[in-house]
Amino acid sequence: EVQLVESGGGLVQPGGSLRLSCAASGFTLISYNMNWVRQAPGKGLEWVSYISSSSSTTFYADSVRGRFTISRDNAKNSLYLQMNSLRDEDTAVYYCTRGVMATISGWYFDLWGRGTLVTVSS
Amino acid sequence: QSALTQPPSASGSPGQSVTISCTGTSSDVGAYNYVSWYQQHPGKAPKLMIYDVSKRPSGVPYRFSGSKSGNTASLTVSGLQAEDEADYYCSSHGGSNNLGVFGGGTKLTVL
Questions:
Q1: pLDDT at B2 (0 to 100)
Q2: What residue in A sits closest to B36 (Cα-Cα)?
């Protein structure tokens, strides 16, 4: 089955760190660019970060740049998001999403995980 | 405040058609044919419904269609069905300064 499964969410204090993981199965991860998208409770979707298929290129939303780091291990079929200096406003469900294939141009998220909840609170 | 502007709500009766707009700028929606639309039911992950402005992924009903004119994209749902009641989000490539942008979402109610 083609799927993405996130893990690593939980409760963390402001200023703390957390590392999210995303396990991909049913497809060849190295063939795709990948992203993290988040959704605060009762709010809309917010794109967080992008990583190219070979890890050569990364991008971040202004709200997380300098605090979050996206990475991937294609051999382990895994995507990661290291989150440091967490703030209350980072509280959200974090979705691992599959982007376009590395060989084409485009911008969309065609496969989503179920998400993992990150709560930043003292 | 979201980068793309959507109406907060839309509604229609079963069988009717409804159109949801998504307004951006010449730096995102107007600059790229990379508008996508997502459907999200309560408590569920979003689902891709339209990509590259007007393309439908396999399995998405023909009732869903997309278009774009200038800086505004639109999602039209024809022949509304009860299961279409959900939140809908548009997204666009925003250039290297803001790679991915979303709209604030539109809650579609089937009356």
A1: 66
A2: A108
How far is B95 from B86, CA to CA, in rounded Å?
29
Choose among A3, A21, A1, A13: nearest CA to A98.
A3
Which two tokens mark A101? 């294939």
> B80 CB contacts (<8 Å, ≥6 apart)?
B12, B13, B14, B15, B16, B17, B18, B110
Residue B53's Cβ-side half-sphere holds a number of Cα atoms within 13 Å equal to 15
Averaged pLDDT of chain B: 95
Give the Cα separation of A10 and A119 in Å (integer).
Answer: 6
C-beta atoms of A110 and B34 within 8 A: no
The pair of structure tokens assigned to A9 is 């969410």
- B1 neighbors A43 (Cβ within 8 angstroms): no
Return the bridge partners of A20, or none.
Answer: A81
Pair type for strands A68-73 and A10-12: unpaired
pLDDT > 70? residue B1: no
CB contact under 8 A, A44 and B105: yes
Q: Do A64 and A48 form a contact (C-beta atoms < 8 A)?
A: yes
Which chain B residue has its CA at the smallest distance from A50's CA?
B99
What is the mean predicted confidence (pLDDT) over A34-48?
Answer: 97
